[in-house]
Amino acid sequence: MRTQVGIIGAGPAGLLLSHLLHLRGISSVVLERRSRDYVERRVRAGVLEQGTVDTLIEAGVGERMRREGLPHHGIELRYGGAGHRIAFEKLVPGRAITVYGQQEVVKDLIAARLAAGGDVRFEVENVVPHALESEPYITFGDGERLDCDVIAGCDGFHGVSRQSVPEGVLTTFEREYPFAWLGILADVAPSSEELIYTRTDRGFALHSMRSPAVSRFYLQVPADTRVEDWPDERIWDELRVRLESVPGFTLTTGRITEKGVTPMRSFVTEPMQYGRLYLAGDAAHIVPPTGAKGLNLAVADVRVLTEALAAYFADGSTALLDGYSEACLKRVWRAQHFSWWMTTLLHTFEDEDAYGRRLQLSYLDYVTSSEAAAKTLAENYVGLPFPEDARLNVL
Ligand code: APR
Ligand code: PHB
After folding, report:
1. Lowest-confidence range among 43-47, 74-78, 303-307, 336-340?
2. How far apart are the first and last CA of the chain?
3. Any idea where the FAD-binding domain is (predicted)?
4. What are the pLDDT digits (tens) for 217-251?
5. Cα torsion at 289, 174, 86, 244 (round to 10°)?
6. Is 355 a catalytic residue?
7. Catalytic pick among 79, 100, 177, 197
């Protein structure tokens, strides 16, 4: 079996890449180890940057997002008994975010690929990339083989692609955080129209949502937290304590439908390519979810990789492919810094001394009182514009 691009992983990166390549007349095969049902039901983040929204619409897969997604023009930072709105419409006019679950993006992309006759294979085992420096191919299943010109490693942080690069080629940069996030999905109307990021001495909490009837919450918890440590009643009690810290705000509770613990990690691998293997999304980098950048970075990588592959398959030019990693890493490191900054600004660190806690509160006072400082947060949060050379030339 042969295709132009062998794609490992059917998350947002792999599926969007397959779709964008299809729009450019480039063939691909997506090999995913989980079932379609699992991939479509996996609850992940839910904030789309302006650039991601534009990309999905330009690529013809944004119709349901436009109908069901929730445009947001600001967020609230809540600390010290007061709430402070970061108003995107004032700080970054014309740019906003859209709240739309990542699994919804995945469903839309799978539907688009299958409707176009795309080759997306689920429950594929034993996926292994080979001959990355010459004529690449992927083995999978029981001795099956996919020959391809290029392999895209879109298989996430725990995938096989990054591991298949020879020892000593990649440099990794990592930061672990001494806490995790307990994520909760609840069948209850949001208690606020916008997202609320709150910093308290007990820890961080986030009020988000998925629809007018579904709320999404996160609690900062110890890194070794087990879900069974947090029965529903304890979750609601802690969310109340951390969120009900301003006059007039009451948290509405309801049936919790999903809970899970997410470790917090910053990670980058350089370069994001080796031979004919190109890494995109979580396979190459991980950010703490505080800045809501994970999915959006995957989209940005895929936009750059699509342009590079389109140029290569059009006339054999490899300049953009050779520069893929460098082009992606500029945005990756900006998002890494922003995500680290939001995390250190809003979370409590047990080993932080009194001086450090005062610095944190001083920075929050600055961000919520200075237009210049708030603009910095806003422009990173809604997403910096894509550079021209990665603009999508959709047919
Ligand atoms: N073989 C085939 N598929 C694999 C393998 C493998 N060896 N290993 C992992 N996969 C699949 C996973 O099952 C998953 O569906 O690769 C896919 C990777 O998808 P994501 O982890 O969602 O990564 P990505 O597409 O880069 O999207 C990044 O997803 O995890 C979130 O927070 C992250 O929002 C960010 C987004
Ligand atoms: C979410 O709604 O899942 C979400 C929102 C904002 C974040 C992280 C997650 O920073």
Report:
1. 43-47
2. 27
3. 2-338
4. 999 999 999 999 999 999 999 999 999 999 999 99
5. 50
6. no
7. 197
Residue-level length of the chain: 395
Can 271 be counted among the known catalytic residues?
A: no
Report the SS3 class of residue 14: helix
Query: With a threshold of 0.85, does the pTM exceed it?
Result: yes
Asked if residues 14 and 155 have their Cβ atoms less than 8 Å apart, the reply is yes
Q: Are 249 and 243 in contact (CB under 8 A)?
A: yes
Please tell me the residue having the least CA distance from ligand 2 atom 9: 45
Catalytic site residue 363? no
- Nearest atom, ligand 2, residue 209 CA: 2
Q: Which class for 152: exposed (0-12), middle (13-18), buried (19 or more C-beta within 10 A)? A: buried
pLDDT band of 214, cuts 50, 70, 90: very high
Residue 340 alpha carbon to ligand 2 centre in Å? 15
Residue 395 has pLDDT above 50, yes or no: no
Report the alpha-carbon distance of residue 291 to residue 338 in Å, rounded: 7
Read off the tokens for 87.
Answer: 């108003």
Cβ pair 70, 80 in contact under 8 A: no
Work out whether strand 137-140 and strand 128-130 pair parallel, antiparallel, or are unpaired: antiparallel
Instruction: Identify the structural domains of the chain with CATH numbers, from first to last.
Output: 5-73+95-174+265-350 (3.50.50.60)
Looking at 12, 293, 312, 324, which residue is catalytic?
Answer: 293
